[in-house]
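Let's practice the habit of predicting before peeking. Look at the sequence and jot down your guess about where helices and strands might fall. Then scroll down.
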Amino acid sequence: MSNTIIYSKPNCSHCVAAKRMLDTWKIEYSVRELGTDLSREELLNLFPTARTMPQIVLHGEHIGGYAELQLALS
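Done guessing? Here is the structure:
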């Protein structure tokens, strides 16, 4: 099991872009989708300050969203 997780939602362009970026970097990840794998309340319990999607845990550390992923991998 990967310790990189993308918390995603349907029809989210930044979520798709984050997955593509991780694929490009050959970083294995799992996806947890809002409404399927967890509720909004569960997401906010995990990440109380989250205001955007996706929320990304990179190598076991919550880094934030897509912009933070770009910074972490640059």
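How did you do? Strands lie at 5-8, 30-33, 55-58, 61-64.
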